[in-house]
Design brief:
The chain is α/β, with parallel strands linked by helices. It has helices at 15-24, 46-62, 73-86, 95-105, 117-122, 124-132, 146-151, 158-168, 190-196, 206-220, 239-250, and strands at residues 5-9, 30-34, 67-70, 91-92, 110-115, 137-142, 178-182, 202-205, 232-235, 256-259. Helix content is 45%, strand content 17%. A six-stranded parallel β-sheet has the order 4-3-1-2-9-10, sandwiched between helices.
Length: 263
């Protein structure tokens, strides 16, 4: 079934999931929507996040996607259950896979979760981790400056490293061996985060574990694709800026990036 997989995010963060999809499932066509114009979602109300998520999913449904990945932790926390109830195609989020990967990696059961304010306040990771391991100890930290620095395209800069170092200081008083990057924007800062912890923590991105779930669902429902195609990207923000980040992060020389607007 050569229909595309839909991927949505508040901005460019979900490209981290797309990169793993292209690596592990290269024959799967992808349509991506990044809501850069209204990013970040972290400080927004749950009602706004739900509305924006439903607008993107409805557009992808009209484009004929066969399944959907909500590649935004804030939107997953707020909207996953609602989206699953409204649409007939399979819908998965990134929180459960990220929690599962962290439990596998941690030997102490103590996990730090870096997320947006919305994700941290939802306690979605606390619940997911403690469902898997009731004795899990979760240290959550909101990182409000991380998404803007990634969206600006400055994630490789010295300024980004400074922001990472300053933001992570409060965690130094806590004991943990594993760090969940609880926002799909954050893997673009992973090098800085690893350096901050001197390579002594397991750093978990939910992207790989999410793709394992995607692969399982495709096989179970027998809806795998057989013909490779380049992904198509839509953004509500600057096409030029989005194209630059796609080209850099996904190594696609001339990515197909288009503009999309919602009422």
């Amino acid at each position: 079934m050569n229909a595309p997989i839909g991927v949505i995010d508040s901005g460019v963060g979900g490209l981290t999931v797309v990169r793993e999809l292209r690596k592990y499932l290269p024959n799967e066509p992808i349509i991506y929507i990044g809501d850069d114009a209204r990013c970040p979602y972290g400080p927004r109300t749950a009602e706004e996040v739900l509305q924006f998520t439903l607008e993107m999913v409805s557009s992808l449904a009209e484009m004929g996607v066969k399944m959907l990945v909500i590649a935004c932790n804030t939107a997953t926390a707020v909207a996953l259950d609602k989206v699953q109830s409204l649409f007939s195609f399979p819908v998965i989020g990134v929180i459960q896979p990220g929690a599962r990967a962290a439990v596998k990696a941690s030997s102490t059961g103590e996990v730090a979760v870096l997320g947006t304010l919305g994700t941290v306040n939802s306690r979605a990771y606390d619940q997911a981790l403690q469902q898997l391991t009731p004795e899990a100890v979760v240290h959550s930290l909101a990182c409000p400056e991380f998404v803007p620095i990634v969206e600006s395209g400055e994630y490789r800069s010295a300024a980004a490293r400074t922001i990472v170092d300053r933001t992570l200081q409060p965690l130094h008083a806590s004991s943990f061996d594993t760090v969940i990057l609880g926002c799909t924007h954050f893997p673009l800062l992973q090098e800085h985060i690893e350096e901050h912890f001197h390579g002594q923590k397991h750093i978990i991105s939910s992207a790989v574990e999410t793709v394992i779930d995607v692969d399982r669902i495709l096989r179970e429902q027998q809806i795998e694709s057989s013909a490779a195609q380049l992904p198509v990207f839509y953004t509500t923000g600057s096409v030029e800026k989005f194209r630059s980040i796609v080209a850099d992060w996904l190594s696609i020389p001339f990515p197909d990036v288009r503009s999309i607007t919602f009422k």
